[in-house]
Amino acid sequence: MKKLLLLSFLCITITSVAQDYNVDLDYYLPTDVTYNKNIPTPKSIIGHEVGEWHVTHDKLVYYMTALAEASDRITLENRGTTFEGRPLVLLTITSPANHSTIETIRKNHIGLTESGSNALTTENMPIVVYQGFSIHGNEASGSNASLAAAYYLAAAQGPKIDELLKNTIILFDPSLNPDGLQRFSYWANMHKSENINPDPYDREYDEVWPGGRTNHYWFDMNRDWLPVQLPESRARITTFHNWYPNILTDHHEMGTNSSFFFQPGIPSRTNPLTPKLNQELTGKIGNYHAKALDKIGSFYYTEENFDDFYYGKGSTFPDINGGIGILFEQASSRGHGQESDNGILTFPFTVRNQFTAALSTLEAAVGMRKEILDYQRTFYNEARSEGGSGAIVFGDEKDAGKTYELAQILQRQKIKFHEVKNDFTKDGKNYKKGFSYIIPKNQKQSRLIKAMFEKRTTFQDSLFYDISAWTFPLAFNLDYSEDVALSQAGEEVTDLQMKIQNAPNTSNYAYVMEWHEYYSPKALNLILKEGLRAKVGMSPFTLENVTYDYGTVMIPVQNQKLQGAALNKFLTEVSKETGVKFTGVQTGLTKGIDLGSGQFRAIEMPKVGLLVGEGINPSDAGEIWHLFDTRYDMLITKLDTKNFGRMDLSKYTDIILPATWGSALDKDDTEKLKDWVRTGGTLIGFRNAGRYLESNELLKMKFKKKQDTAKAITFEQRGDYFGAQVIGGAIFEAKLDRSHPIAFGYKNSTLPMFRNTTLFVEADENSYNNPIQYTASPLLAGYISKPNLEELKNTVPFKTGGLGRGQVIYFTDNTNFRAFWYGTNKLLMNAIFFGDEM
Ligand SMILES: [Zn+2]
Asked: What's the 145 CA to ligand 1 centre distance in angstroms?
């Protein structure tokens, strides 16, 4: 009998595993409702069952389009396209009755965030839930679950679903990262065996570089909710501010051996600007997830590993916008099924957990509807009352471009700002009309403004899931003051335009352009690409009563491909395209270096290679590719490390080595690279590539060795102890030697630098070799441990040295961080254009 029982138990186990790979739609769906036969199932449109294959983005869109056509509960809109041209679709799901008055419902809902909201009643107001799936493309169970979830919402029948749809507006975003999802689905599907092989060593579970996590330019899009630099984020943030959702869910995956995580995260790591009630409500919503997962027998955990600190993440961004963000993390099968500590983790199982959490979110939304709506109203009432009366000013009298880019972020985040009424000076900085803007503190988004502008240096916890500081005016290296009178404000800016400079006056002698504008490298590249000669001035000079700073670019008129009126016309076009100002001058005689001086050095047209592929950190490489390609319109060749040995490097003037993962180049590659530098190449390395440059004698420098001995730390505390020594991302002040070419285009003598490494390079004994050096008290914002701060003081984030006829340049940190660290982008451009002069 016992034997028989065991045998039948085994049979059940075996069949259930077998079934888990080949499930039908019923595997996911609740059985307490009936389903409308007129609504197409996913399989009837895309040709396979949910979880049988990894859905491609194309098929996902086919299905959502078909659902929207078949169901009067669903409308579909296309909000733009990804870099690869895929549609960014959004489904709005609610009852047909709500659809017929959707704009009124939306306006009423927005009313909760405006002044006068107390006059509104929330008794019968629907709650707004934004459900977003798989922002990391290779965490695909979310987007695959969206097929079943959308089907359920369209097809389920009965009083329960009617109640849900009556009380909820669902903004349903089936794929937050279409390009990444498509890239990953092709990988998982192309390696699927007829007999699914759960061996983790199978190629199916090990994507080729750079993987599907990121978008087209290899950005982690779940860091871009606040800076909004990527097209996918722009579409999403527009929807967000159009609706101010009460709950926003963000479906992810984590390690294969894990279970399922839902927020709240670690309490001590919640951003202090987030109201306490937000986390309490998150906990209460969590009870719904727990109940639903208990019911299907799935394990889960909460209040560990993940946090709610950086507002640029999807699950944290809503917390500073009157909503509640919720992170879901499902253990990943990565392909169709994989062995794990919890037995075989099948893909359909992961999809079912995501589906279940999507539904329990909606159940919580209905159950807690009034409570959460009232929370939102209170959030904005309090935000308005604590804003204060003054204003913030930011800008740069020499850089309208960067000022414009920060203003664009404010506009995307629905923060109101004004022109300055008249030019004025504050704390020694000039704020000029067109080059600066004023933000009144007393406005609806006062908390978001605080989150973007504050410089926090004290923290309850010393561990961070992500960066600990992101102060925007520091990231942009803009002058700013948080303490100006509102009376300095002019007209509110409602139609932001990039500043257009006056067309240059005609010259038969030369044109000059200062190097401060953000887009001046783009302008210089256009000039060189046209085949025109340009030179850079190594010193300041005064000409026709105007003073020009270090690094001013001069374009002679004579002996050029374009001359006279044609050159003037060309530079006028360049100015229009880049916002950079050119001045035609009538004489070469200056106070300072004359235009014919040897202190004007010829600039070579750069031909830049970027190392990518196995061994290279894709995020860092992608940021550089994106910077060149989308900001400066400069060609950059992506050199794959695996073919490096076969490449002819002689055509490149510059090669960039981003941060690495282990070793990117072997011994032969390294010798080849060294030979190329010796013959005149400029090699530019970032972050841990410095260890490689140093150990291979490409660049002489001394890294400080830190002694790390744990004292009075228990076994249990060891993780936190080492975690606290990490610099996850904070902002530090460096002083600049403005006469050094690396600092050309910087008008101030200090520069805020972003740092996310613990590499400390000792300063050179010759001070002229330390053009960028951390100050004696460098912390501006963010977390750093006391011992690390001691180490950091007076070290250098930049090092350069000659090798043969070439040059090696090194940055300890990422100057191109996440496409929003505009303030240090010019450092890399200076290395590219002026590296020969260092
Ligand atoms: Zn993720």
From this structure: 15
